[in-house]
Task: structure prediction
Amino acid sequence: MNSVYIIGIGLIGGSFALDIRKQYPNATIYGVDHNESHLDEALALNLIDEKAELSDLQNADLVILSIPVDAASEKLSTILDVVSDNTLVMDVGSTKLPVCKSVDNHPKRRNFLATHPIAGTEFSGPKAAIANLYQHKTLIICEVEKTAFKLQERALKLFSDLGMRIRYMNPEAHDKHIAYVSHLSHISSFMLGKTVIEKEKNERDIFDMAGSGFASTVRLAKSSPAMWTPIFKQNKENVIETLEEYIHNLTHFKAMMEQDDFEAIFDEMQNTNHIKDILNGIK
Ligand code: NAP
Result:
């Protein structure tokens, strides 16, 4: 792989750049981004070798599309128009159905691989890029059968070199399940942060009293609204379904409190402790 173009050189794109540079030292890594200062930072951090434009993509062996999901769905067609027959284009977006649908009938659909790395942090931009972010992490691939076989092989070699575990899913199932394990967690964290900030206007008090439980539960509330709003918009129906179930559980918990039913509260928490066994296998 000689020529790698990363569109959106932030946390996810920048972390791919770091690992690709390590595994493929002869590759030239180009950055494409609408934020000129992010491109300058990416050059200074040695994430990329050169700045580039979308019109340069015809020479690419690999294109990684790592921008917010609405922009990715909008830009993917144009990217496929430009690339050569031998270019692998992969996206990394947190929703999969809209991006897959956006190129369903594109003549170069076989150049595209829809992926979602289950890896990340609450930080964004090139400075947030981390080496080895993808090691031992799961990568979900959707509609693999729609990607040309030789490009699938190139992609699988890359993911294996980066130490990733592969899971195959259809885009509908991906978007439904990810709404529970990722999208709802972010809403829950944002709204917990909001509830506490509104009540405790004096931020010093929050800082003094907040233990590590609060800090770890609101960690995701530091995430970028520019990245998350399009995700909630694209996955609206699934996210609303998870919210209805979550709100039902919160209302039930409140009712148990009102009824002084602490035995039921104990049981509810004990049953949920089972999450320890489920998460034990996940790093
Ligand atoms: P990020 O750190 O904010 O990086 C995105 C970069 O793309 C930024 O430099 C941004 O510049 C730029 N950009 C935004 N819109 C653009 C456009 N239309 N054209 C060109 N450049 C554009 O975001 P990220 O966390 O890497 O997320 C990128 C993708 O990965 C998203 O699709 C997200 O769903 C997916 N993902 C994220 C995580 C996670 O934990 N963060 C995990 C898995 C997958 P500005 O900041 O100036 O807009």
In short: Residues 171-199 form the longest helix (29 residues). The first strand starts at residue 3 and ends at 7.
